[in-house]
Amino acid sequence: MVAKLISTIRGSLAFTLYVLNSMVCGLPIHFFTIFKLLSPSRRVKHFWDRLMAEFAWFWNDVSILIENLLLNIEWDFTPPEGLDSKKTYLIIGNHRTWTDILVVQRFYHRRVPLIRYFLKQELIWVPFVGLSVWGLEFPFLKRYSPEAIQKNPALKGKDLKTIRQFCEKFRGRPISIIIFLEGTRFTEAKYRRQNPPYRHLLKPKPGGIAQVLAVLGSQIEAILDTTIVYWPTKPTLWDFLSGKVRRVHVRMRKLEVPREAIDNRMENDLENRQWFEEWLHRLWMEKDELIDQLLQQDRAELGEPDTSGDS
Asked: What is the distance between the alpha carbons of residues 255 and 258, in angstroms, rounded to a whole number?
């Protein structure tokens, strides 16, 4: 009972501080976005871009401080070396939970350019956050159901077009883009529905990464293949904030950009497209094996998670 009360207090306090942090850092970005929209020249717009990025960095600085003070998590990773905040990177990873973004931001913080990720269009209405990330030029994607696409075939591939337009804006500008290749968070229901050839992952989707590489592939310094593993293995955001997550592993490896994926070669060559899909499958097989090894390590060292206090 006492442990559950402490967990509730910890989670409530962490959530409150995250909200306050979003208000304090998000509101100035709102105002800077207006000034940027009204700016007459590209040079002035870039000034506002840099200022907003500094507030975004500070936003993340405070988030990491909150995690260090309140969340009793054992972080199992070594900060990556050999990265440059003035170069362009494509980060790819598995997607387990909403907290993946917090983990990735912590791992790459101030080591690569400000990370942009693709968001569902509905998130633009989240107070303080939605308009801030819109001002920071995060791309918003609208998901269409199979029924909607069947009624209006023009909707098919619209998200890929949005990704391509977003990448065009950043030609010649350093940027970090993260893509969770599974396209959705892992759940047992989705796993059963897909029946993938992996134990801990859903199938990777090649469409989004293919568009990024087709437009920005020649300027991308490296692909940063990132694997995230939690113990316990299925944490919710509340589990993360309330201290139920005991350990988080992050592993990263730098990969060269496949030449076959640059300059629209996959769109125009079926052989290149098939090669790329096989390349992703090999990456996912290796990632699946790594996840299995880390989970076995956690099970041996930490034992099975105690869920007796869960509601």
From this structure: 9
Q: List Cβ neighbours of 178 (8 Å cut-off, separation of 6 or more).
A: 90, 91, 92, 93, 104, 115, 116, 117
pLDDT tens digit string along 123-181? 888 888 888 999 999 988 877 767 777 777 777 777 888 888 888 889 889 999 999 99
Task: State how far the alpha carbon of 167 is from the alpha carbons of 18, 118, 195, 223, 252, in Å.
Answer: 30, 11, 32, 15, 23
Position 95: which residue type?
H
- What count of Cα atoms within 13 Å lies in the side-chain half-sphere of residue 243? 19
Over the stretch 210-264, which tens digit does the pLDDT of each residue have? 889 888 888 999 999 999 999 988 889 999 999 899 999 999 999 998 877 776 6
Angular region, 144: left φ>0, alpha ψ -120 to 50, beta rest: beta
How far is the C-alpha of 62 from the C-alpha of 68, rounded, in Å? 10
Contacts of 224 (CB under 8 A, 6+ apart): 80, 83, 89, 90, 91, 92, 108, 112, 252, 253, 254, 255
SS3 89: strand
Structure tokens at 194: 């897909």
Tokens for 222, please give them.
């490296």
Predicted TM-score (pTM) of the model is 0.90
Domains of the chain, first to last: 74-302 (3.40.1130)
> Measured between alpha carbons, how far is 224 from 253 in angstroms, rounded to an integer?
6
